[in-house]
Write a structure and sequence with these properties.
This protein is an alpha/beta fold. The protein contains 20 helices and 34 strands. A hairpin with a 2-residue loop joins strand 5 (about 35-40) and strand 6. The structure holds adenosine-5'-diphosphate and zinc ion (ZN). GO terms for molecular function: 3'-5' DNA helicase activity; ATP binding; ATP hydrolysis activity; DNA binding; zinc ion binding.
């Protein structure tokens, strides 16, 4: 039972303010309980907070201010509070920032009975104050949908009185919000009859869910082997037991197809959670999850912070995907946080992938995770045949990237009415714009990144910060006119080559930056799935889980691309990406797929592993290399990024930190740097990185906290701690 505090008792309330911490208040009339949403006075304002504990007791009781009122009783359960606390400790994030992640949904403090919704009804008068104009524009942006007062005020950056003023003159209508509708029940009966390896895997997962308690399973199986079918059986068991299930997907664009599939399996749509879902819907979901009414949630990584009442299973699909790592704000890896939450609430985790991360592979190898494997594709579908095209033997014309063998294969597929995918992991037209007179390249004015030409936008774009500028006619460096030239291929340029080589073919380019919205992307994907394109040209975005039944050929334009650079994860990432892309071919089983990899180094161990070498041997070799280097998953690592406008000042602060490395030395950690961060300048801020490496058993978080606490950074300098960085 959660502790309850009587009126006047001392309580600790954690506010959701940016620099919030637990502050003492007096319990209000009627008392309050742990986990309640409350409104508390903070200076002259009233802010949202959560009752977090009995209070510290250092502050004079007589001077304590009372809690304003209880907004919602106990939505933040002990289990969720414990998760947020542990996640904050692990990622070295202030607890209030963690609470903000969990409470970002607008309108959480508003009781359903008092919620009003707003919409435009009358014509806007000609003369309006700026604030009123913003409200009207915000309502237009919402496209006529009704919104709550909180949403409207936030979107228009105004106070409630501005909206009320518009209601008074009859431009905006106000009415009571309809009651939240419950989600339709999901029916666990039915489902596919599992076959072969699937039977044992399904039985094991169902048994684990039925038994309850914490456990993590790595479900490994090639694309199309039925991993989804298998873990949906575990979800079904969860539903039968009256427990909730959460399925995380790495990409919003994958949800539509997945939801349709779940609906076909369970007879109703599950709840959906990601940034593309309306705020009203998100608030409803938040409430329903908290009441245990939403049985299954399909969502993005932030769904981990929902107030589940009775979680039985978390599935992390495509667990190796790098987009599970949040790289801005609170830096966390959703896969690791899923395991943490499951350990705290006592539920099962399934990590599903055709190409697991090395971390998960090692954890399974060491027996920390259970390993289940699906050997073959379901039914008659076979894995694609994989072959290298040795580019050293190919003669290509200038500015051409498609070899003759690849072109012939594409032509053959076209004749059969099948689709080909040409994969190039480079957005835009050309990665480099170079002056043929002096050799200078065009860089971003705000970052240490080269500008990438985008013909579609007719501009140069910085992929780091999004800044754009026109393609210069004269060299910015030497001033010579007419010598600026694009160098190297991007997908847009590849599309030009394809159009020239196959003038009759229907093309589709699938690159994240060509689509303004998730909706447009979804339409393009549906078009391809329905056979509306013969040749698909795509970046990374096509590698993720999409099912294109007519696709039988995958051509990788530059299989060596990811192998450059010194990152210790390069081999793992390349292996995963190539296998995922190749896995798009021949999924239906009527015709075998073929994957052709253009490479200048066909003997490279990674290329050979991709082409069907001994996969276990590849992982063992990778693991041995990491072990020798003492890096994750065999050692602990953290990056500390310092950033500021003045490069000398940032370096100086980094050097001063490095001199005071006592707290790190005490745990036997090694410190590297300060050195320029992998991206040394972003949006005009210079970035310097310090890397910390320690034994697996070392407690690095408290040591880093103590180390950083020694020095107060200058006002304009920012510090971000990245536990388990993606690149090292
Ligand atoms: P994965 O998640 O490993 O890529 P899926 O679960 O999507 O594989 O299965 C691939 C295809 O095979 C899907 O269309 C799925 O419905 C079908 N399939 C897999 N297993 C079965 C089964 N036991 N019975 C019927 N269809 C199945
Ligand atoms: Zn930039």
């Amino acid at each position: 039972m959660e502790r309850v505090f009587g009126e006047g008792e001392r309580v600790g309330v954690l506010t959701t303010e940016p620099l919030g911490r637990v502050l003492d208040y007096r319990a209000p009339e009627g008392g309050c309980g742990m986990g309640d949403f409350v409104e508390v006075p903070l200076g002259p304002r009233r802010v949202l907070g959560v009752v977090w504990g009995p209070g510290e007791g250092s502050f004079d009781m007589a001077k304590l201010r009372p809690v304003g009122r209880v907004l919602d009783a106990r939505p933040m359960r002990a289990e969720l509070r414990a998760f947020l606390t542990r996640a904050a400790d692990y990622t070295l994030t202030p607890l209030a920032a963690m609470l903000r992640l969990a409470t970002r949904t607008p309108g959480l403090g508003e009781a359903a009975s008092t919620r009003r919704i707003y919409r435009m009804v009358g014509p806007a008068p000609n003369k309006l104050t700026d604030a009123r104009l913003r409200v009207i524009e915000a309502l237009r942006d919402f496209g006529g949908a009704a919104v709550t007062l909180g949403e409207l005020c936030e979107a228009a950056a105004c106070t409630a009185s501005v909206v009320k003023g518009l209601v008074k003159i009859g431009v905006v209508a106000e009415k009571d919000a309809p009651r939240d509708l419950p989600y339709p029940p999901l029916n666990p009966a039915g489902g596919a009859r599992l076959m072969g390896d699937q039977v044992a895997a399904g039985d094991a997962l169902v048994a684990a869910v039925a038994q309850g308690g914490y456990g993590t399973t790595l479900l490994k199986g090639v694309t199309g082997s039925g991993k989804t079918e298998v873990y949906l059986e575990a979800v079904a068991e969860c539903l039968r037991m009256g427990r909730q299930a959460l399925v995380l997907l790495p990409e919003i664009a994958l949800t539509a197809e997945f939801l349709t599939r779940v609906e076909a399996r369970f007879g109703a749509r599950p709840a959906e959670w990601h940034s593309g879902v309306t705020q009203t819907e998100r608030r409803r979901l938040w409430k329903m999850v908290g009441q245990g009414q939403a049985q299954m949630v399909v969502g993005a990584r932030s769904a981990l912070f929902l107030p589940f009442q009775n979680l039985g299973l978390i599935v992390v699909d495509e667990e190796h995907d790098t987009s599970y790592k949040q790289e801005e704000g609170v830096l966390y890896n959703a896969r690791d946080m899923a395991v943490l939450r499951a350990a705290i609430c006592g539920c099962q985790v399934v990590l599903a992938s055709a190409t697991p991360s090395l971390e998960s592979w090692v954890n399974a190898d060491q027996g920390k995770y259970t390993r289940l494997e699906l050997g073959a594709r379901y039914g008659t579908a076979e894995l694609p045949e994989m072959r290298a095209i040795d580019m050293r033997a190919q003669k290509l014309a200038a500015n051409c990237w498609i070899s003759d063998p690849l072109a012939r294969a594409v032509e053959a597929r076209r004749k059969l009415g099948e689709q080909s995918l040409l994969f190039l992991n480079r957005r835009g037209f050309a990665p480099v714009t170079l002056c043929r007179a002096c050799g200078a390249q065009v860089g971003c004015d705000h970052c240490d990144a080269r500008m990438v030409e985008h013909r579609f936008l007719k501009r140069l774009v910085c992929h780091q910060c999004g800044a754009t500028k026109p393609v210069p006619t004269a060299c910015p460096s030497c001033g010579v006119e007419g010598k600026m030239a694009p160098v190297g291929p991007g997908v847009e340029r590849l599309a030009e080559e394809v159009a020239a080589r196959f003038p009759e073919a229907k093309l589709a380019v699938l690159s994240s930056d060509l689509f303004g919205s998730a909706r447009a992307l979804k339409q393009q994907i549906e078009l391809i799935a329905a056979g509306g394109a013969e040749i698909i040209i795509g970046t990374q975005i096509v590698a993720k889980g999409h099912n294109f039944p007519l696709l039988t050929l995958v051509g990788v334009i530059d299989a060596d691309l990811g192998l450059q650079g010194s990152d210790l994860r390069a081999a793992e990432r390349t292996f995963q990406l190539m296998r995922q892309v190749a896995g798009r071919a021949g999924r239906t089983g009527e015709r075998r797929g073929l994957a052709l990899l253009q490479t200048f180094q066909p003997e490279h161990p990674v290329i050979r592993a991709i082409l069907g070498g001994d996969e276990e041997a590849f992982w063992r070799a990778e693991a041995a290399e990491r072990r020798a280097a003492g890096v994750p998953p065999f050692g602990r690592m953290a990056g500390v990024i310092l950033s500021g406008p003045d490069v000398a000042q940032v370096f100086e602060f980094g050097a001063e930190l490095a001199r005071r490395d006592g707290p790190l030395q005490r745990i036997g950690a090694q410190l590297y740097g300060p050195a320029p961060a992998p991206i040394a300048r972003v949006r005009g801020r210079h970035r310097v990185r310090l890397l910390i490496k320690a034994d697996k058993a070392a407690a690095i978080q408290p040591a880093i906290a103590a180390w950083l606490a020694q020095l107060k950074p200058p006002a304009n300098l920012r510090i971000a701690v990245d536990i388990d960085p993606q690149s090292f």
